[in-house]
Amino acid sequence: MKGYNETTYAILGILTTDCRSGYSIKQFIDRSLNHFWKISYGQIYPTLKFIVQEGLAEVHTATTSGKPDKNEYTLTPKGIETLRNWLENPIEQLPAERNEILLKLFFGRFQTSETTISLLENYKQKLQTRMETYQSIEQAIIDCADENDMDSMYWLFTLDYGKKVTRAAIDWCDVTLEKFITKEES
Amino acid sequence: MKGYNETTYAILGILTTDCRSGYSIKQFIDRSLNHFWKISYGQIYPTLKFIVQEGLAEVHTATTSGKPDKNEYTLTPKGIETLRNWLENPIEQLPAERNEILLKLFFGRFQTSETTISLLENYKQKLQTRMETYQSIEQAIIDCADENDMDSMYWLFTLDYGKKVTRAAIDWCDVTLEKFITKEES
DNA sequence: AATTTCATGTAAGTGGTTACATGATTTG
DNA sequence: CAAATCATGTAACCACTTACATGAAATT
């Protein structure tokens, strides 16, 4: 454990919701942030420990009847301050995505056109599946959100981002495939 | 060093071009693959060692007059086979991008509208800069590419991907900003 | 004479996942 | 009673970056 990284802030942010334990943080991320943020227990528990060490949150063991003991974390004023400070600062740099399909395509002169085409078709299919997932999540949010639910609004914003970017990638697949197919015919 | 990872294949791919040393591989990546693939010397040199160990390439020290000695790597038939095999296999899964701006936006109910708006504007500005970079690279490729240059075609494909996806992200910024601004007015 | 470019490499550190260990309670 | 879910944690491993060490030649 080193310093304040994005994972720390992500957990700090989640602690402002009703999720207060390592286990429920994981669930929250898997359900709500999954399309742009993933995290494993191997990060969550050490980070929670770090957060307490830094005085950003306090732990209290909740002994509920029926279920196992739970470590519940509550943000301290310092924790809230730290989170808000991070939220207010613009991101330092755009995420640099590694893209395996672009890497394969880049070395395309080493392959046959058919191989490249099937690579692109496979990629497009995966993007379409992702798009369908986004759409069904969106529908689920719209169906169960009450009017004044602010969280669901922000959730929809992030989903919209995913949808727009995925749509653009699918379009690119179509355009690129088109170029390969006309090249094959000629 | 463990096994065959994407970095290994990336380097194998570059070794099919005129780049045959660690130093020139780094240059190649910085010049041509930078928008979807980055790599450091700390990866390149150990990976080259691994590639030789696996019999995918051979090293020969080239003593050029004037410049320092250079370790030149040449793919073996096994190396070519390994690369081609990787190129032919579809990608296993879509890259899962972590997106800091979406994370910040997600916790937006913890901020003022003005903060969110300036966050989005800053992000949009960064995307626009990226777009301009793509455009000028594209122009440079078009200007200096000869008709039959296959590499430049594939290069343009990957750039087109970057442009389309960035365009979509900029659009999303506009749409989302619009929603915040109308919300502020009401 | 100083700086940049060419060239190769390593050690330490960061950020992360996977697999494992443990154990209670609930549901089928 | 077996399986799933709830719950917390760690050790090993992987991928990668940064900073450093070295040194020669070219450029300014």
Automatic annotation (TrEMBL), chains A, B:
Top-level taxon in the UniProt lineage: Bacteria
Domain Transcription regulator PadR N-terminal per the UniProt entry, residue ranges: 11-84
InterPro entries: Tscrpt_reg_PadR_C (IPR018309), Tscrpt_reg_PadR_N (IPR005149), WH-like_DNA-bd_sf (IPR036388), WH_DNA-bd_sf (IPR036390)
Transcription regulator PadR C-terminal domain sequence ranges: 98-179
PANTHER family: NEGATIVE TRANSCRIPTION REGULATOR PADR, TRANSCRIPTIONAL REGULATOR YQJI
Family matches, as Pfam families: PadR (PF03551), Vir_act_alpha_C (PF10400)
Name under which the protein is recorded: PadR family transcriptional regulator
